[in-house]
């Protein structure tokens, strides 16, 4: 047995002479004595330890075979994937005027029609094969709760279809939260609503500057009221988008949430992410100059380490470090735009060059458009971080370069951050909960 190609080892406690072994392939974390680590490195691992480390992917019998198996990661997922995943963009309308909204001036009174929703159901029926045991729909916008009729139509029909087929069904919302009243939450929970993600950008002052109502009024108090009044009906996760000048205010938000009773047992997860710049040459946000174009910017590393530590030490859930599963590479995952156009990533909606078909004619070959398998190259294949990166985020490459046929390499970022993130996960063990469907996924 040899150390896995995807093994990272970090010094953990010098007083007790322990290390953390972490697999970027399986996300397994094991604490071992220094002597055992050196035995692993030297090929002298005792048999009783060899079996347990092999089970969690920390050792390998052959590095070449392990790397080749990793290149078939998504092939194995697609061969046995039990889920049909649909992201339904119900509209491009919104009652907020967020300063960084990536949809920019493409927003408007553009709504999915009842006829398009019927075609969506036909599409779902055609792909809900006997091998599928689960149907998941994420309703997205704009602001999806401006389209309650479409949610009722699609969720109701999907629930009946799932009963007919004997499959599971659940749906989720990505919403600004302003319309997520107790009345709406109770109705949607009855239709199969499983999880809601609501964005709060720091304290009231910071949030109200970044995410006001269209008329200019602050939205913070409305969101807090709605979350407090609905958290017993469905699982609610809180997201947030920070910039260099305001990320520290998110720490105060955590204290405020706890103070008003939105404690860790009341929320499914909390996760904060940096605001992204508009794509190169994109004039849809002419007055916004903030955001980032890469995770390699040093301030992002500092912000992520700080905010993640503050989330975990207060007892809130946040996604662990684990392999990514970009929906671009997953065969049975589609974004359906309000007009029936198909895409493979929500970040590319409304960009005709990235259309992957439509509900009328079905999906077309999108492998060249989205450069599927762009990580299947010598550089990525030999990288310890391949499972945590898979060539990085196509949209981030598009933001920087206006194209996606290149790598968004995460090596420098992971060299700088992975040890901190893994040690945070070891320091703050979590109770097992159902996974958060809106945990970070690259595009």
Report on the architecture of this protein.
With 443 residues, this protein is an alpha/beta fold. The chain folds into 2 domains: 2-62, no CATH class; 72-443, Aldolase class I (TIM Barrel, Alpha-Beta Barrel), CATH 3.20.20.70. Helix content is 36%, strand content 17%. The protein has 16 helices and 15 strands. It has helices at residues 34-42, 47-55, 63-71, 73-80, 114-127, 148-165, 182-191, 204-210, 220-230, 249-259, 298-313, 367-370, 378-381, 386-389, 394-401, 411-427, and strands at residues 2-3, 7-13, 18-23, 29-33, 59-60, 83-89, 134-140, 168-175, 193-199, 235-242, 269-274, 333-336, 342-343, 357-358, 362-363. The strands form 4 sheets. The protein has an 8-stranded mixed beta sheet. Strands 2-3-4 form a 3-stranded antiparallel beta sheet. A hairpin with a 5-residue loop joins β3 and β4 (29-33). α5 packs parallel to α6 (148-165) and α11 (298-313) runs parallel beside α16 (411-427). The longest helix is centred in the middle third of the chain and has 18 residues, at 148-165. It is globular and about 65 Å long.
Describe how the helices and strands are arranged.
Blueprint: E1 2-3, E2 7-13, E3 18-23, E4 29-33, H1 34-42, H2 47-55, E5 59-60, H3 63-71, H4 73-80, E6 83-89, H5 114-127, E7 134-140, H6 148-165, E8 168-175, H7 182-191, E9 193-199, H8 204-210, H9 220-230, E10 235-242, H10 249-259, E11 269-274, H11 298-313, E12 333-336, E13 342-343, E14 357-358, E15 362-363, H12 367-370, H13 378-381, H14 386-389, H15 394-401, H16 411-427
Parallel strand pairs: 6-7, 6-12, 7-8, 8-9, 9-10, 10-11
Antiparallel strand pairs: 1-5, 2-3, 3-4, 12-13, 14-15
Helix pairs in contact: 5-6, 11-16
